[in-house]
Specification:
This protein is an alpha+beta fold. It contains eight helices and seven strands, in the order αααβββααββββααα. It has a five-stranded mixed sheet with strand order 1-2-6-5-3. The mean pLDDT is 82.
Length: 209
């Protein structure tokens, strides 16, 4: 449910941001110039993000971009109930489980937290490189995990769904390809390990490129 005070806070915060931008741009001695439409652009983006009817549509886009699984970890998304959803509230089927960062409770139900986090990290990277849409806010609280035979990870909160057109994906892939082909594997691997929370197979990365 969208809390009614959120829109009021957006109005107040973007009004303050607009005054701040105007002040900074008026001070030549700062040596900095900020786009004058920053507050309006930010306001538009925030209103898009809190539109829960938009989030319902994003669930379908996220499902299209998701693999069925990585290894023994299965990926799922909640199912929006369109006839019971509006801009201010979103209804989905009930998802039972624990957050991906709740290591203690995940261990109690037999989930290998490290394996699940690694699978999610690999999938986020693969989405960004190969799909038109990807989870752009992959914090651990946006994943709910349960175990029914195999480990199941539900991908939540696609309000901030990243979009890559073919040209953007090609740019990212070419950039990484140049790093890999140029012998920079050892330099980028630590960052990729941090991103995916585990080891990365460089041959798998090259297959995406």
């Amino acid at each position: 449910v969208l809390h009614p005070w959120i829109e009021d806070e957006i109005e107040e915060d973007t009004e303050f941001l607009n005054k701040l931008v105007t002040f900074i741009n008026s001070r030549v001695d700062f040596g900095v110039r900020i786009p004058s439409n920053l507050a309006d652009t930010t306001k538009t983006q925030l209103h898009e993000e809190i539109d829960l009817s938009r989030e319902a549509g994003n669930y379908y886009l996220l499902r299209l971009s998701l693999s069925n699984s990585v290894g023994d970890v299965e990926f799922l998304t909640p199912e929006p109930i369109s006839e019971a959803s509006r801009r201010g509230f979103l209804t989905t089927n009930f998802i039972q489980g624990h957050s991906l960062d709740d290591e203690a409770n995940l261990a109690n139900i037999g989930v290998d937290n490290k394996q699940a986090r690694h699978a999610v990290g690999l999938e986020v990277l693969a989405q960004a490189l190969t799909q038109a849409s990807y989870q752009a806010d992959p914090n651990l609280g946006n994943f709910k995990v349960n175990k029914s035979g195999k480990t199941c990870v539900y991908w939540l909160d696609p309000a901030h769904l990243g979009k890559n057109n073919p040209e953007q994906r090609e740019f990212i892939k070419n950039f990484l390809f140049e790093l890999v082909a140029g012998g920079e594997k050892k330099k980028i691997l630590p960052y990729l390990r941090q991103l995916i929370d585990g080891e990365v197979n460089i041959e798998q990365l090259e297959s995406w490129l």
